[in-house]
């Protein structure tokens, strides 16, 4: 009887830790998968409202990439910013980066941080492409990042 109680107690103690560790592994998987999907679409042309490999807009690429990784995201950059994930200040691969015309406005652009100071995005000028986060166009428009 003491053994059964001991096993039950250990299960109660260890269960939250194992769940938390499994959650981190799952997060690492879907972040990596979303980045891989986005990279597989490098060169796809920009299409306003586009949500498929025939053409993407920024939020379409992010929604599509995360969807293929098993995570459902809203359709627009603003909805992603206001309803999903939690804000982070130190970026990790897979974090969503948000941009706005000015610091006080709603986000109008979203990209996926891929590490080493780079992000993958669907931009109207280049389609699906990789840019540096320090890019002179995007850097002043950056308003924050969220981890999904």
Automatic annotation (TrEMBL):
Where does the NlpC/P60 domain start and stop, copy by copy?
A: 28-148
The answer to whether UniProt assigns keyword Protease to this entry is yes
Signal peptide boundaries: 1-20
- Does the record bear Signal in its keywords? yes
Q: Which domain of life is it from?
A: Bacteria
Write the record's keywords in alphabetical order, separated by commas: Hydrolase, Protease, Signal, Thiol protease
Q: Which PANTHER family does this entry report, sorted A to Z?
A: MUREIN DD-ENDOPEPTIDASE MEPH-RELATED (PTHR47053)
Q: Which family does it belong to?
A: Belongs to the peptidase C40 family.
What is this protein identified as? C40 family peptidase
Its lineage opens with: Bacteria, Bacillati, Bacillota, Bacilli, Bacillales
């Amino acid at each position: 009887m003491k053994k059964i109680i001991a096993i039950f107690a250990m299960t109660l103690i260890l269960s939250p830790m194992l769940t938390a560790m499994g959650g981190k592994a799952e997060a690492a998987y879907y972040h990596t998968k979303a980045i891989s999907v986005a990279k597989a679409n490098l060169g796809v042309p920009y299409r306003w409202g586009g949500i498929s490999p025939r053409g993407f807009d920024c939020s379409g690429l992010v929604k599509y990439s995360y969807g293929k990784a098993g995570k459902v995201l809203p359709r627009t950059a603003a909805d992603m910013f206001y309803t999903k994930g939690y804000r982070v200040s130190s970026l990790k691969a897979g974090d969503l980066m948000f941009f706005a015309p000015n610091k006080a406005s709603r986000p109008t652009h979203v990209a996926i941080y891929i590490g080493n100071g780079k992000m993958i995005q669907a931009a109207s000028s280049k389609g699906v492409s990789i840019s540096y986060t320090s890019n002179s166009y995007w850097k002043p428009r950056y308003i924050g990042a969220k981890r999904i």
